[in-house]
Amino acid sequence: MALCRPVPIIMIWKPHVTVAAVAERDGRFLMVEEETDEGIRFNQPAGHLERGETLIEAVVREALEETAHVFVPRFLLGVYHWAHPAKNLTYLRFAFGGEAVGHDAGRTLDAGILGARWLAADEIRAGAARHRSPMVLSCIEDWLAGRRHPLELVTHYA
Asked: Which CATH architecture has domain 16-151?
């Protein structure tokens, strides 16, 4: 009779891939105020990459769904890695800088989004305790520092 050995359980770890749209107009940044399980928070228009879409398609979609603004990405602002300390979740955020060029005032926003807000950098800094993550302020500071990377750094294979 053969002895049965316990089969090891292999835990597969993968980060949550997200995108964020960073747009500035007249010294104010496009932000969203949203309901979360941690209360009302501020974030850039952001969300998860969905199966079958490119990172660029994802950031355009998320900005429209959360703000009713048409976002045109112009550059890669940065790639941010953050492990949520209380949730055992890791996020890999691709933040794109660009322009909000159109607005559909009658569009219904995603569930949980209270509204789009245009905030000055000092207002964003002052509200850091209500940010969805530390990546929010990092993106603003990187924008203000002039970080700009060509979109060609992101390659999509169909």
From this structure: Alpha-Beta Complex (3.90)
Q: What burial letters (b/e) apply to 110-142, b meaning 16+ CB within 10 Å?
A: eeebeebebbebeebeebeeebbbebbbbbbeb
- Alpha-carbon distance values, 101 to 25, 85, 110, 157 (Å): 10, 36, 19, 28
pTM: 0.91
Give residue for tokens 């429209």. 64
Nearest to 135 by CA among 52, 15, 54: 15
Rounded CA-CA distance 28/20 in Å is 16
Domain ranges of the chain: 16-151
93 by Cβ neighbours in 10 Å (0-12 / 13-18 / 19+) ranks as buried
Reported as a single tens digit per residue, the pLDDT across 23-44 is: 999 999 999 999 999 999 999 9
Q: What is the DSSP annotation of 51-79?
A: TT--HHHHHHHHHHHHHSEEEEEEEEEEE
Token digits for 77?
A: 């602002």
Pair 138, 132: CB distance under 8 Å: no
Tens-digit pLDDT profile for residues 95-129: 999 999 999 999 999 999 999 999 999 999 999 99
